[in-house]
Amino acid sequence: MTEVTAEHYIILATTLFVIGVAGVLIRRNAIVVLMCVELMLNAVNLLMVAFSSHHKDSAGQIFVFFIMVVAAAEVAVGLAILVMVYRNTRSTDVSLLDQLKN
Amino acid sequence: MIALVTVLLTAIITLFVNLVNTKWSRPVATLGLAVALGVCFYDFSNPYEDASEMLYFSHASTIFSGLTILIGLILIGTSEYSITYAGKNRGDVYALMLFSICGALILFAYSNLLMLFLGVEILSIPLYVLAGSDKDNLASNESSLKYFLQGAFATGILLFGIALVYGASGSFFIGGSKANNIINYQLYSGGGLTMFNMGVFMMMFGLAFKIAAAPFHFWSADVYEGAPDLITSFMATVVKTAGIVAITIFLLSIGFLNKQWEMTFAIMAGLSLVVGNFSALKQMSFKRTLAYSSISHAGYLMLGITINDPIIIPTLLFYLLAYSLSTLVLMIGMSWVAGHTGKHDFTAFNGLAKKHPILAGLMAVAMLSMAGLPPLSGFFGKYFIFAEVFNQGALSKDGGFWWLVLVAAINSVISIYYYFRIIIAMFFSPAISEEEVPAMPRINLFVLGLMCLGLLIAPLFATQLYGLMFY
User: Fold this and answer.
1) Which of B101, B119, B143, B235 could form a disulfide with B107 if both were Cys (CB 3.0 to 4.6 A apart)?
2) The dihedral formed by the CA atoms of A68, B128, B242 and B113, expressed in degrees to the nearest 10
3) Cβ <8 Å between B138 and A47
4) Which residues of chain A neighbour B114 with C-beta distances below 8 Å?
5) ipTM metric
6) Where are the domains of chain A?
7) Residue-wise over B437-463: b if at least 16 C-beta within 10 A, else e?
8) Interface-testing mutation among A31, A32, A34, A51, with chain B (most B C-beta atoms within 10 A)
């Protein structure tokens, strides 16, 4: 059995991150976009923990706690904004929102 | 640090005062910011570190904090009418603006990537809410949702960049007194340079997004247009200042590694200038024109960042001061006119000079400063940046970025066209709007007058400014 090294984690985290980015760019439903952003943040968490263990340095794991806190705040704000938009438009489709164009 | 705590406490007190009586929230917030501004002057003695050495309060960071608090003070102080959309919730709007200023103050002082991340988020999350604070207005909703989705996306990219930099270097410290900062590790190990560069690139992506520099500017015109006027002026000034300073601190701290980034920044600066100016040319809405013009101003600031030397800090400060003051005059004036005519088009300003010559005159002065005409600060801001870039170019073998200065100079001539449209509308077009715009309250006019006076006399103090800032 081969050993799991930092490179494996980098590849896994990068894959997750790219899936998240692709989701944000492709999907039109605001809730799905929000979930993809969360996926990006969690990929970063994984990467931070992997590097933290690789460097034998605890700072990376502390950073992860802060990312979790901020992600929670961001989701709270994001869902509130979505509810507000939904009340006015009855939809969560991003492409419906095109009032602001010249 | 004391200023930061003062602003934070003011925000919390404002929230509670709003519960008791909505009318008191503005005086309380204004007073708190005035105290914080005083504290900044008091604090301006010795640089010191705080928060486990993760924040470094240098002279430069104190002065930028002062500028930001001053902007907040002016905006909140004159917001008696521009806040009416918020009804009973106006205290919440003020409190969120103050929280956002806290984020900016952290960004001026960070010396650890954790603080950079927290600063960016504390700056942005209140703004997502603020952009949508006009809850029943669909444009405001849309601007809020767009800003939130794209801002969260940029945050993700910034974070991935930070993780890669951490992976390559094993530290989050970017300098300061810590020996194990990201550069030292690079020097000794020599490995992971590709990963390090990739990380820096992604961090710059996230930060360039915050200041709306091309090619990451797509959100800005829509968000600026849809958000309430008060919030748009806040975003155009405070967020831009904070983002530019954060990028500068980071690039100065990675020092010699920065060489390979100069070209990237030069290209981004050129793109921002061209895209911002040419998109502004064909806009009908004054607010949208200002949004595009703020993209082109990000271009001038990025041009300054290519210099890669601490001398750039006072230059950027002067430019940001001139830009912020003129933007505030224009935005407060526009908010007054648009609040009574209900539209942000150029035609809303037709014949304004006949009815309100003082307001029109002050807005014209701010416009001329934005366009960069000689006796005003806007001209000297651009001139200092161009001169620094030329100096730097003369020292290097390949001539530096003289061609970019040429592009910037041509662009500043082009920008005169759309800046003058508003002056022509105010002074030479007959009034067509049916709605009568009442006279602005004296106290607000007085504040606008002070800012225009500042634009006139700031160049006289430029030398002193260069004398006092240093780390």
Assistant:
1) B119
2) 10
3) no
4) 59, 62-63, 66
5) 0.93
6) 6-96
7) beebeeebbebbbebbebbeebbeebe
8) A51
B135 Cα to chain A: minimum distance (Å): 7
The CATH code that applies to domain A6-96 is: 1.10.287.3510
Facing residue for A78 by CB, picked from B118, B143, B152: B152
Asked whether the beta carbons of B170 and A55 are under 8 A apart, the reply is yes
At B73, list the tokens.
Answer: 């003070």
A102 pLDDT above the threshold of 50: no
Position A68: which residue type?
M
Contact of B59 with B468, CB cutoff 8 Å = yes
- Minimal-distance CA residue of chain A relative to B131: A81
Determine contact: B197 vs chain A, CB below 8 A: no
CB contact under 8 A, B125 and A37: no
Per residue in B209-225, pLDDT tens? 888 887 888 888 889 98
Helices (H), B396-441: 402-428
Contact A78 B148 (CB under 8 A): yes
**Per-residue pLDDT reduced to its tens digit, B50-93:** 767 788 888 888 889 999 999 999 999 988 888 888 888 888 99
Residue type at position B138: L
Q: Is B460 on the interface with A (CB under 8 A)?
A: no
